[in-house]
């Protein structure tokens, strides 16, 4: 489901539900997180001045709620749950079942929402600027992520002015982290990549954030462990807790 345009209000009135029928994809993608064709149930693309509120997304085949090339968007009271009937094919073992993702977007607020997903609860991908997260609860996620960045050779990625407050993370692998590809390309996207450049600037998480995670704040974090010996060309500055 994809929406485009200006001055849009999408309101599920507390009972609206999108069922992604993700079980078949969880089974197919086991061990192949980037399997081509996995569907995204909800996307705002090239949207300006929009509100999306009061609905649920269940069993997303891939990312749950994506905003691409959009600006001035309020996301309020959204419930996300990506769980599998088969523990072996649980989204936590698959990857790419992110909760909220932003790409090349500006001035997005995500608030009063809940997510139980197997990957990033929120992922601020390349081109995400002026993002605000408030009163968000995440279960069994990879945490609040910036990236992945630097995946495409020669491409400059920028993420800046990101704030998160009153975020609760339970059973998550990380608190907040920045993930980058390395400075030299290894294989090709979507599974591999690297060689891009850019920067992350002015990122903050409030002291009111509650963490029950394996790791706290990681900067930077290599997107693939086997690449970690090579240096990323991404720069970071002005990271703070407040």
Automatic annotation (TrEMBL):
<protein>
    <recommendedName>
        <fullName>galacturonan 1,4-alpha-galacturonidase</fullName>
        <ecNumber>3.2.1.67</ecNumber>
    </recommendedName>
</protein>
<dbReference type="GO" id="GO:0047911">
    <property type="term" value="F:galacturan 1,4-alpha-galacturonidase activity"/>
</dbReference>
<keyword id="KW-0964">Secreted</keyword>
<keyword id="KW-0325">Glycoprotein</keyword>
<comment type="similarity">
    <text>Belongs to the glycosyl hydrolase 28 family.</text>
</comment>
<comment type="function">
    <text>Specific in hydrolyzing the terminal glycosidic bond of polygalacturonic acid and oligogalacturonates.</text>
</comment>
<dbReference type="Pfam" id="PF00295">
    <property type="entry name" value="Glyco_hydro_28"/>
</dbReference>
<dbReference type="GO" id="GO:0000272">
    <property type="term" value="P:polysaccharide catabolic process"/>
</dbReference>
<keyword id="KW-0119">Carbohydrate metabolism</keyword>
<keyword id="KW-0961">Cell wall biogenesis/degradation</keyword>
<dbReference type="GO" id="GO:0005576">
    <property type="term" value="C:extracellular region"/>
</dbReference>
<keyword id="KW-1015">Disulfide bond</keyword>
<keyword id="KW-0326">Glycosidase</keyword>
<dbReference type="InterPro" id="IPR000743">
    <property type="entry name" value="Glyco_hydro_28"/>
</dbReference>
<dbReference type="InterPro" id="IPR012334">
    <property type="entry name" value="Pectin_lyas_fold"/>
</dbReference>
<keyword id="KW-0732">Signal</keyword>
<dbReference type="InterPro" id="IPR011050">
    <property type="entry name" value="Pectin_lyase_fold/virulence"/>
</dbReference>
<keyword id="KW-0378">Hydrolase</keyword>
<dbReference type="GO" id="GO:0071555">
    <property type="term" value="P:cell wall organization"/>
</dbReference>
<keyword id="KW-0624">Polysaccharide degradation</keyword>
<dbReference type="GO" id="GO:0004650">
    <property type="term" value="F:polygalacturonase activity"/>
</dbReference>
